[in-house]
Specification:
Elements lengths: L6 H6 L10 E5 L5 H8 L5 E5 L20 E8 L7 H20 L4 E3 L3 E4 L2 E13 L2 E12 L18 H5 L5 H20 L3 H11 L6 E5 L4 E9 L5 E5 L2 E5 L3 E4 L2
Parallel strand pairs: 1-2
Antiparallel strand pairs: 2-3, 3-7, 4-5, 5-6, 6-7, 8-9, 8-12, 9-10, 10-11
Helix pairs in contact: 3-5, 3-6
Bound molecules: biotin (BTN).
Amino acid sequence: MSEPLDIQEIKRHLDETMTLGAQFLLFESVNSTNEYAKQNVEVNGTVVLAEKQTAGRGRLGRDWVAPAGKGILMSVVLLPEPGFSVPLLNLAAGVAVSEALQSLYSMRSVVRWPNDVFASRKKIAGVLAETQFRGSDLSKFILGIGLNVLQKPGDFPDELRKPATSVKQETSLTIDRNLLTAGILKSLDSKIHLLESGNSHLILQEWRARTDQIGRLVKYISNKEEKVGIFKDLAKHGAVILESDGHQAEITSGEIILLE
Ligand code: BTN
């Protein structure tokens, strides 16, 4: 294992005024940081980290697998206030990862809807956003971020449907996971404040500037339908505007695959 994750080290790189980092929890091993957060965390801004997950979850019912000590496996917990936008924060998470990789390692990556991060056309990070409701009110929002940091090609599971990469593979630099974790948290925190201050259009702007999907031919897959069309843009609330057969539709869930 590389340099272990260390809460004091992460905190050293953070600012005290941040919403994120109100509380840190670090596990050697846990089923899933998202699941732990769902069951146990009630403090706004809590960050749950693990060196290893035994039942890591991905989007659309998939697994998220990472060897111990090689990735960043993190869940951020927010207790929403009025005006909170789940889809925009979802987009913001991918942007935050991409921004941190660029500012710390000058590494180029792109975001793909809603919140995947790709480098050299391979997936490097994914985000699983989960919500909890009290009655009809959103009471907890969990953003689970999985980033491949130190994995070598042989560390990815054979059954992975698509190629994956890691920060180490892309940069060949020495990567400090504590610094990188702090970088992601700082960037994400600034997005939360953009949303809170009524500047959500800036999140959309930042996402657009970091994606390679706009204007491209994509396939949309949901459990109800499949269609091919052009990814025109993002709508105000973060939905994909998909144009197919001369009609535009707004997509809010499911999968968008780039057709090269
Ligand atoms: C995806 O691309 O499918 C999303 C992957 C999200 C993985 C992270 S790892 C930390 C957090 N805990 C989980 O169980 N999942 C998320």
